[in-house]
Amino acid sequence: MSASLIFTNKDNSDFNYDYAKRCYALLEKIDKSEKIVEENKTYIQSFIKSLQKEGLCLATIRKYLAQFVIIGELFDRDFNECEKQDIEKVVGEIKKHFNSERGDESIAMHITTLKKLIGWVKKDEDSVLIKWIKIYIFTQI
């Protein structure tokens, strides 16, 4: 899967944190995961290519890849064939996984990524499958 994606460090932060190496490692993790449906691995790779075309930096792409490891393993069917109840289940699992561990911001980031990915796969960012999802971040003052 990962053979057609090329990551290159372009600036000092990329070199300092070696984001290219980190992206390849995460892509390999996705590729080798037996929990991620093969079709979804292809969608993830294509989505990453589209992010590269948009000019997103490697740090952001690495963040998406790390989230796709979790999101991909939570889906037990093709992203393009998923229904609202599949997405509801995954949103619930994300909330449960991050509830006490990392908090609201991690939940919001993963759900935002999920919405963006499903909207991209379905070619409809206003899809009824994802439009219902509301993201709230509660902060204590």
Features:
141 residues, mainly alpha, globular
Describe the secondary structure blueprint for this structure:
Layout: H1 12-17, H2 19-32, H3 38-53, H4 58-74, H5 84-98, H6 104-122, H7 128-131
Helix pairs in contact: 2-4, 3-4, 4-6, 5-6
Walk me through what this model shows.
It is a single chain. The chain is globular and about 40 Å long. It has one domain. It has 141 residues and is mostly helical. The model has no long low-confidence stretch (mean pLDDT 87). The longest helix is centred in the C-terminal third of the chain and has 19 residues. The relative contact order is 0.12. It starts with 11 loop residues before the first helix and ends in a 10-residue tail after the last helix. It contains seven helices and no strands.
Q: What's a quick, concise take on this entry?
A:
The chain is mainly alpha-helical. It has seven helices and no strands.
Q: Which geometry do the CA atoms define?
A: globular
Q: What's the story with the biggest beta sheet?
A: none
Percentage of residues in helical conformation: 55-70%
Distance between the terminal alpha carbons, to the nearest Å?
45 Å
Kindly report the average pLDDT value: 87
**Helix/strand structural class:** mainly alpha
Number of domains: 1
Uncertain regions spanning at least 5 consecutive residues: none
**How many helical stretches?**
7
Q: Provide the succession of SSEs.
A: HHHHHHH
Tell how many strands the DSSP assignment holds.
Answer: 0
Beta-strand content bin? under 5%
Radius of gyration: 15 Å
